[in-house]
Amino acid sequence: MTPTFAPASADAIPLTALAPDALDGWLAEAPDTQAAWVRASGFTATPGSRIVLPAPDGGIAGVLAGLGDAAARARSRFPLADLANSLPEGTYALGGVEDAALAREIALGWLLSSYRFTRYKQAKPAPARLVAPDGVNAAETEAIAAAAMLSFDLINTPANQMTPAALEDAVTSLASEFGATCAVTSGDALLTENFPMIHAVGRASDVEPRLLDLQWGPEDAPKVTLVGKGVCFDTGGLNLKPGGSMALMKKDMGGAANAIGLARMIMALRLNLRLRLLVPAVENSVSAGAFRPGDVLMSRKGLTVEINNTDAEGRLVLADALALADEEAPAAIFCLATLTGAARVALGPDLMPFYTDDEGLADALGAASRAVADPLWRMPFWDPYEPMIEPDIADLDNAPKGGMAGSVTAALFLRRFVERAERFAHLDIYGWTPAAAPGRPRGGASQAARAILHHLDATYGRQ
């Protein structure tokens, strides 16, 4: 779906956003009948609350919407976003918001709340549309929302249709839309082109594994590479997951979905950089050809990897893609992956850990996260844990025993494949919203993409 703002109209219904400390001032200036109505209704401008003001003819004279105080707003994101679904049908024009960042957040949240996944079942559209608020770049906000919804759609599509081949179609379609190139290496060509771990993880599936390589932008611009984990379904391989743990594994390509969404944002806004998007697209399946516990795999980089759990496959396919990305020594590599349950235990489904050794990048990503309400939290590349990923018979262990610091050790594993890039960050995302919240429909989630976009925009500017 394509999210859009309503065109400006003199008939748009006034929507006034109020913090609790501004309510008395509004009541003092309002017509007596409206002020009496608001007082009688008990409206106090708590977050997400609203009251419809009746007109003498029985229509809607306006709406008051509660922003809550600063402490209340800190506990949630996308204020007023639920109004897209809860207000009566019509077009609304926002007033009362002087803070430009808050207006942008409200506008984006409103568009995201209009998302519907309709591939298999029809759904009623959101009844309330918003005119782009003053100071909000409508085209930019629509482009960001469209990219986020692309990520939603990719993750929400079940694995019988979101196969590695379908993920290839999504990337090639994106390349065609924006005039990018896309090279695909698949099947046994992965071996001849030296992507042995991508091949090993995906070879048990009936759908061939592949590496998708999209490139866009001026060739002399700074090189920024996105690497997204594209495990379209993860059975766990021969270390088969129990049924309860397999139920959401269609989202194991959430890193790829978010990298694809971020790539779309970058191209739509024409950032001044040379973009490369690498997606190792595989299914981790079970068959006679599946890789096994105890196997030792050779990687593109030449490091050997002992397989102690075939359910730790994401880091294997990412390692080959990261090694390729690193070969051209780009200005930055960002790796996005639904990688570890340990990250969820530590930070839950809504707060995404990121790892980097670059203090400047860490500060920039933290600031970007706060600026665009896309929460990130820095975690450490903890060098004393390096021995945990070093087994006896190979260079690396894909699944250290003991179960402790699982997100950290996975990040340390990936760092071994990046040496030349000027900056590197790995983001261990979840890719899923378990319960609907304002601006965040239940299902596939866009996570970390807007924060990275904000940082890249500030760093490189636009063409």
UniProtKB/TrEMBL annotation:
<keyword id="KW-0645">Protease</keyword>
<keyword id="KW-0378">Hydrolase</keyword>
<dbReference type="GO" id="GO:0006508">
    <property type="term" value="P:proteolysis"/>
</dbReference>
<feature type="domain" description="Cytosol aminopeptidase">
    <location>
        <begin position="309"/>
        <end position="316"/>
    </location>
</feature>
<dbReference type="InterPro" id="IPR043472">
    <property type="entry name" value="Macro_dom-like"/>
</dbReference>
<dbReference type="InterPro" id="IPR048816">
    <property type="entry name" value="Peptidase_M17_N_1"/>
</dbReference>
<dbReference type="InterPro" id="IPR000819">
    <property type="entry name" value="Peptidase_M17_C"/>
</dbReference>
<comment type="similarity">
    <text>Belongs to the peptidase M17 family.</text>
</comment>
<dbReference type="InterPro" id="IPR011356">
    <property type="entry name" value="Leucine_aapep/pepB"/>
</dbReference>
<dbReference type="GO" id="GO:0030145">
    <property type="term" value="F:manganese ion binding"/>
</dbReference>
<dbReference type="Pfam" id="PF21337">
    <property type="entry name" value="Peptidase_M17_N_1"/>
</dbReference>
<keyword id="KW-0464">Manganese</keyword>
<keyword id="KW-0031">Aminopeptidase</keyword>
<dbReference type="GO" id="GO:0005737">
    <property type="term" value="C:cytoplasm"/>
</dbReference>
<protein>
    <submittedName>
        <fullName>Leucyl aminopeptidase family protein</fullName>
    </submittedName>
</protein>
<dbReference type="Pfam" id="PF00883">
    <property type="entry name" value="Peptidase_M17"/>
</dbReference>
<dbReference type="GO" id="GO:0070006">
    <property type="term" value="F:metalloaminopeptidase activity"/>
</dbReference>
